[in-house]
Design goal:
Elements (H helix, E strand, L loop, with lengths): L15 H4 L24 H16 L10 H11 L4 E4 L2 E4 H5 L4 E2 L2 E2 L1 E4 L2 E4 L14 H8 L7 E2 L6 E2 H11 L7 H11 L4 E3 L5 E3 H11 L9 H16 L6 H19 L21 H18 L8 H16 L7 H18 L44
Antiparallel strand pairs: 1-2, 3-4, 5-6, 7-8, 9-10
Length: 396
């Protein structure tokens, strides 16, 4: 929507149970691994096998199609993309193939046809279907599921393109925008323009503006999801060959600010603050460290340029998180927290491995310089320190 009057204090109409779905975990006792200095910190070459071991442990936590919810299974797909596997009737199957076949949960279909195309089943209760609007579509984007991929519904098949079309029509200014931005910038690109169901025009930078305006420590999981979406959108914008400007530059400044805040609030053991970006705090509980360090590291792995991946503070966090997962492999775990943590480790592993490619932004948008499409990963340049900008004027 081309805003005539911007909303500096945009009000989001969500209950706290939806806003923080998956971000309030049960306590589990386990002291953090002792990583108080850098003298015993692994080299990048030593760290990578440990990260791989933690990833493999999580891979073996097979969820069961008969027992676990779409919300949990989607989080597994976030971590392992199209290769994610689960168990159905005791047999290991590909998760994407299974959810495409038309399964139900609580006697409700995973996918529905709509007036504007189709959608993943929306929120019903915590940890059942979606926790946030278009969350499922964002995870399909992260798995790079193509637009022509089909999902069965009781009324016939729909495609990813149908779900994208529905998201475009249903977009509203007074809603949480994180997963919509993440999904739509992937499938439509940073220059997309469309009309909603009211006939009002939207530009992708409207979504960037909304996310910039509503980002706070009160956002879902301390704002880490919003920051991840902003970093993914920024990377996609840069992949298209454009220089950061306007709301995209503001998004980059927020990303850089939160990178430095995460570093400043890091604990001596390598974990990140239990209060995210609000204040420095530590936790003696494995589940809490998994949740907060995992979410923060996931954002950092999407946001940091290549030349910062092996800074000591980053490796300390990676080592702490991998050790925690390995040392507590037999403990009960919140799958949302586990899979967001694993997503961060997977992105790091892929960025560090010469035979893998990390998805740090959409690969589907054209670039001004076609040679850029061959680059293994995006390498965003850390900009010089820029003074805090005054409030932006209304967008014409």
């Amino acid at each position: 929507m081309s805003f005539i009057v911007r909303l500096p204090l945009l009000v989001l109409l969500f209950s706290s149970s939806i806003m923080f779905a998956g971000c309030n975990s049960e306590r589990a006792t386990s002291p953090a691994p002792d990583i108080t200095g850098t003298e015993n910190l692994e080299s990048p070459e030593e760290l990578l096998p440990k990260v791989e071991q933690a990833i493999e442990i999580a891979r073996q936590h097979y969820l069961a199609s008969e027992e676990h919810s779409p919300w949990e299974i989607y989080h597994g797909m976030l971590a392992f993309r199209k290769d994610y596997q689960l168990k159905k009737d005791g047999k290991v199957v590909n998760a994407l193939e299974w959810i495409s076949s038309g399964p139900t949960f609580d006697n409700e279909p995973w996918f529905q046809k709509t007036e504007f195309g189709g959608r993943a089943h929306p929120y019903t209760k915590s940890n059942a279907f979606e926790g946030h609007k278009n969350q499922s579509l964002a995870i399909l984007a992260m798995a790079d599921v193509p637009l022509d991929h089909q999902f069965q519904t009781p009324d016939g098949p729909i495609t990813v393109a149908d779900i994208v079309a529905n998201a475009q029509k249903e977009i509203q200014e007074n809603e949480e925008v994180t997963w919509s931005l993440w999904a739509l910038v992937h499938y439509l690109g940073p220059d997309a323009v469309w009309e909603d169901k009211k006939g009002e025009e939207w530009h992708m930078d409207d979504l960037v503006y909304m996310q910039n305006a509503t980002l706070s420590n009160e956002s879902a999981c301390g704002g880490t999801h919003a920051l991840f979406a902003l970093a993914y959108a920024r990377n996609t914008y840069q992949n298209s060959g454009q220089r950061l400007r306007s709301y995209w530059l503001e998004a980059d400044q927020k990303i850089q600010k939160h990178i430095e805040e995460a570093k400043a609030m890091q604990n001596l053991d390598g974990s990140f603050s239990y209060d995210y970006f609000f204040q420095k705090s530590a936790s003696e509980n494995f589940q809490e460290r998994l949740e907060t360090t995992g979410h923060t590291l996931e954002f950092l792995m999407m946001a940091l340029p290549d030349d910062r991946l092996n800074e000591d503070w980053v490796r300390k966090a990676l080592s702490l998180l991998a050790n925690d997962i390995i040392n507590n492999k037999d403990e009960p775990v919140d799958y949302s927290a586990l899979y967001h943590a694993i997503d961060g480790l997977v992105i790091y592993r892929n960025r560090m491995s010469p035979d893998r490619t990390a998805q740090l932004g959409s690969k589907n948008v054209p670039t001004l310089d076609q040679s850029k499409s061959e680059v293994k990963v995006l390498k965003p340049v850390v900009p010089p320190v820029i003074p805090e900008l005054p409030a932006l004027p209304p967008k014409p």
